[in-house]
Amino acid sequence: MAIVREVRGFTPKMGENCFLAETAVVIGDVTMGDDCSVWYGCVLRGDVNSIVIGNKVNIQDGAVVHTLYQRSKSVIGDNVSIGHNAVIHGATIESDCLIGMGAIVLDNAVVESGAIVAAGAIVTAGMRVEGGYIYAGVPAKKIKAVDDKQRDEIIRRIAEDYMMYASWYK
Predict the structure, then answer these.
(1) Local mean pLDDT, 10-residue blocks, the chain (170 residues)
(2) Contact at 8 Å (CB) between 94 and 76?
(3) Are strands 141-145 and 133-136 parallel, antiparallel or unpaired?
(4) Are 107 and 89 spatial neighbours (Cβ–Cβ below 8 Å)?
(5) What is the pTM of this model?
(6) In the chain, where does DSSP find H-type helix?
(7) Any idea of the CA torsion for 121, 3, 27, 81, to the nearest 10 degrees?
């Protein structure tokens, strides 16, 4: 069973039809929408500030979502995939985004709707990732536009696939 723990008077709130893997950790001021999945080895640590997660979000194995005390919250929109071992630290990820495996998105950065942050990319503090584009590298830079096929086959398909994968564990 996942570790779901109150801290500082804040108890995590889960929407309907959410899957938390047995080794997931969800602590404190975390609010999660419907149809979300938090996979093995993930940590969502809302101890020093809030984490707000929309609907149909998957946070894949080993990912960490945290915040900065009194200075940044983590906000994740709807239909978002956070790849394996990614780190979201006090950033805003708008709806319909993909954060690739091992990517890092730092405090007060904003990833606009429809963007893809490539595997291993680092989105620096305060940076704005323009919606509808792929960003890659260290630090992350705009590489090319996300076309309709990528939007359907990468962003939307992965979110749908993870809902199916989660159903296998219930």
Answers:
(1) 96 98 98 98 98 98 96 97 98 98 98 97 98 97 92 89 94
(2) no
(3) antiparallel
(4) yes
(5) 0.96
(6) 148-150, 157-168
(7) 30
